[in-house]
Design brief:
This protein is an alpha+beta fold. About 50% of the residues lie in helices and about 10% in strands. α2 crosses α4 and α6 packs antiparallel against α8.
Length: about 500
């Protein structure tokens, strides 16, 4: 059962000191609004910041009104970022967690891992299902969970027999047990219960609440409402855009939320109209199954080389002049130049900021298990498609090794796919409802945009020998595509465990 607990929020330190010393503190002072209100005055009040905080503490009601005026009346929404909330989120599905984690900036998530924790079979029942659908769903998820608990000891035995020396060491044994768990989880549904710690500043929270409010799934809408109620208790002046009544009170008008409500529908309709005008008719594109479908970029080698020249040239070149120099250089000259720049790079060093000027876009097809790790890279731009059984499923090699591939495909590809199609047929108004029955093995399309600096970070982490095999294979495929497009700036791409060898090979 879903439970949202307000675990904490930031308070003015003087208020904390009063509480510690046993002084009586007004309940209305126990709010992050005073800090936001004080910081909101910095640009308009010459008094020291600590004095502004004292003024806000003395008259909390006035501070709230001031914050409301500056944040929403004058449009300085960044002030709301000074208020921070912590939530315990329990009893929610993997699908709901993914919806919450779509927001990237001003938030932090730590999620219950299906890799390290043996699951107990709990799952969320969507309220949208009919009585007959609930019965079918219970049966399906029951079979998925039974398969998980059945193959888990078999996978542990497989890992023990395949890696006898590692099994002897207690720490290494935990690693092998983790490998067994992470492969067994591929059969688990996206309805499986999870939990997470969620931290957000007020600005990010407000935007998230507005988005959740208009989600297809009732569970996600309920999650947004519960988060809102908890935040409203301590900082109502900072989340006005999430509530029509608060907005009306503050702005004297009606909250227009049509973009959040209709945004997805508008994009779909606009795309359909465009394709009709281009005379594609009703032809559907052929589904392409594969880990990396395509890689695009702005010729990162040239863009990054130009940025490096621009930053370090004496006298200064303009960026257009630096671009011209980079464009005129032969490929081996670009590789030599970038090699000189990176020659002292260590495995734990970030590549220079200039690498952010090179961009790449990866068109991926990944499993839910892989996406669970991909989504953590919030500096990337990620456009995520719905889960689609027609894209196929990912079968762990270990499942095949223990002779369970056929059983796995019968359940995950057969019964699960049938349930999904039935739900889609019964609920055409809710295109994502059937996803509750899909599993960690099912795939979705993800369009990932990242600069080359983030690609280096991603590659080191996800191509490393300690990375989970699914995301590791995806990362390797992305690196291969990147190296074809930009050989100079990608010369040191690879997992941390391989860095020294890669560098030795480049500079020998």
């Amino acid at each position: 059962m879903m439970e949202i607990i307000l675990a904490g929020y930031n308070l003015d330190n003087e208020t904390i000191n009063q509480l510690v010393s046993g002084e009586e503190v007004s309940p209305e002072a126990l709010t992050p609004e005073t800090i936001s209100a004080a910081y909101a005055r910095i640009s308009r009040d010459s008094r020291p910041v600590n004095e502004l905080r004292a003024v806000a503490r003395e008259d909390v009601a006035k501070a709230k009104k001031s914050a409301k005026t500056i944040v929403f009346g004058l449009g300085h929404h960044s002030v709301a970022e000074h208020a921070v909330f912590n939530f315990d989120v329990l009893g929610v599905s993997r699908l709901a967690i993914e919806a919450l984690e779509q927001h990237r900036i001003g938030v932090g998530f730590t999620e219950k891992s299906q890799r390290y924790i043996t699951l107990d079979g709990d799952y969320v029942m969507p309220t949208e299902f009919t009585a007959d659908e609930r019965e079918l769903f219970n049966q399906l998820v029951g079979e998925q969970n039974d398969f998980y608990f059945k193959v888990l000891p078999e996978l542990e035995r497989y890992q023990r027999e395949a890696n006898p020396e590692m099994w002897k060491d207690r720490n290494e044994r935990r690693t092998l047990q983790g490998w067994a768990k992470e492969d067994a989880r591929y059969v688990l549904s996206l309805a499986t219960e999870g939990q997470l710690g969620y931290t957000a500043n007020a600005r990010a929270l407000e935007h998230t609440l507005r988005r959740l409010k208009h989600h297809h799934l009732a569970e996600v809408r309920d999650l947004g409402e519960r988060l809102y109620e908890k935040a409203k208790e301590v900082a109502p002046s900072l989340i006005i855009l999430a509530d029509e009544e608060l907005f009306l009170e503050a702005q004297g008008g009606t909250l227009e939320d049509k973009f959040f409500e209709k945004g997805r529908t508008d994009r779909i309709e606009a795309t359909e109209n465009l394709l009709r005008r281009m005379d594609f008719g009703n032809k559907s594109p052929r589904l392409v199954k594969g880990r990396v479908v395509n890689v695009e970029g702005n010729d990162p080698d040239i863009a990054i080389m130009a940025a490096l020249i621009y930053e370090s040239s004496k006298p200064k070149f303009s960026y257009s002049e630096a671009m011209a120099i980079s464009d005129l250089a032969f490929p081996h000259e670009r590789e030599g130049y970038i090699g000189d720049v990176l020659k002292n790079l260590g495995k734990f060093d970030s590549v220079p900021r200039e690498f952010e000027m090179g961009k790449m876009v990866f068109d991926l097809i990944v499993s839910s298990s892989c996406y669970a790790q991909l989504k953590r890279h919030r500096l990337c731009t990620q456009l995520v498609g719905d889960y689609n059984p027609e894209l196929g499923v990912v079968v762990p090699e270990s499942i095949e090794a223990i002779g369970r591939k056929g059983d796995f495909l019968d359940l995950v590809g057969g019964k699960t796919g049938e349930f999904y199609r039935k739900i889609q047929e019964n609920h055409p108004e809710n295109p994502r409802l059937g996803e509750y029955g899909l599993t960690n093995a099912h795939q979705r399309q993800v369009l990932v945009g990242m600069n080359m600096r983030e690609l280096y970070h991603f590659s080191r982490l996800r191509e490393d020998a300690h990375a989970q095999w699914d995301i590791r294979e995806t990362a390797k495929a992305m690196s291969i595509g990147a190296k074809e497009l930009a050989p100079a700036t990608t010369m040191l791409l690879g997992g941390k465990h391989e860095f020294d060898k890669i560098k030795e090979r480049v500079y020998r």
